[in-house]
TrEMBL record:
Matching HAMAP family: TatC (MF_00902)
Stated name of the protein: Sec-independent protein translocase protein TatC
Primary location recorded for the protein, binned into one broad class: membrane
Organism from which the protein derives: Micrococcus lylae
Keywords: Cell membrane, Membrane, Protein transport, Translocation, Transmembrane, Transmembrane helix, Transport
Taxonomy, superkingdom: Bacteria
Length: 261
């Protein structure tokens, strides 16, 4: 496919994803109150422990800004089946018929992984808030700006969702030959560092057990992805070697007589 057609295809995929996210954002406006209640719940739990902590809106229009951010976040989560499909639909034309079947399987895996990552981020939230509010000295108060607290949480949730989808995307790129397994293995130290960094950020309390619970699924998924990439490269190499051997055998045999044609 020429570059211009690739760009046109990418534009169409982005537009479809944007429309789905916009519709999901409209739905998010109706879910704003319960979602905000869930996000602010850790602060209410801190108050029950005798720590004065509350969410502070320091301007008239800030509540509307937070409404847009929360609505957009809900839209991204709700529309995840659509934009994840658009990503795979953009990749799948480069796959063979047999490999497209695997791509459909990867798509069905990506959606629950992304949503599961968001859920993991939400489960980590109370521990993070508990750690930070525990640092407040006696008699102190913590009026947390909403324009700092809410964006931090939303980015955290999306980061966890994206982190769980990355191994699946990695296998997809390997299937179309863009990411060889050798390249992944040569940069395993960077992968380990990034996974550990994500776990450390999501569990800022320094609790080693919590960090292990967060990092273990990521390490497991990346390990499975690397194994699949290695097996796929070996299969591709065997097929290439077999084809080259057939070609060399035909060349060695020489041209066939006209009577055999």
């Amino acid at each position: 496919m020429p570059l211009r057609e690739h760009l046109a295809e990418l534009r169409n995929r982005i537009i479809k994803s944007g429309v789905a996210i916009a519709l999901g954002t409209v739905l998010g406006f109706f879910l704003y109150e319960p979602v905000m209640g869930a996000l602010a719940q850790p602060l209410k739990d801190a108050e029950q422990r005798g720590i004065l902590a509350s969410l502070n809106f320091d301007s008239v229009g800030q509540s509307f800004d937070i409404l847009l951010q929360v609505g957009l976040f809900i839209g991204v989560v709700v529309a995840s089946p659509v934009w994840l499909y658009q990503i795979w639909a953009f990749i799948m034309p480069g796959l063979k018929a047999q490999e497209k079947k695997y791509a459909i399987v990867f798509l069905s895996v990506s959606i629950p992984l992304f949503v599961g990552g968001v859920v993991i981020g939400y489960l980590v939230l109370p521990q993070a808030v508990q750690f930070f509010t525990a640092l407040i000295p006696d008699g102190g108060t913590n009026f947390i700006p909403a324009n700092v607290y809410i964006p931090f949480l939303l980015r955290l949730f999306l980061a966890f969702g994206a982190a769980l989808v990355l191994p699946v995307l990695m296998v997809g790129l390997n299937m179309i030959g863009m990411l060889p397994a050798r390249t992944i293995l040569n940069h395993w130290r960077i992968t380990v560092f990034l996974i550990s960094l994500i776990a450390a950020i999501a569990a800022p309390g320094g609790d080693a057990i919590t960090m292990f619970y967060l990092a273990a699924p990521l390490f497991t998924l990346f390990g499975v992805a690397i194994v699949l990439c290695v097996l796929n490269d070996r299969r591709r190499n065997r097929r290439r070697a077999s084809t080259e051997a057939d070609i060399e055998a035909e060349i060695a045999a020489g041209p066939k007589p006209l009577s055999e044609l």
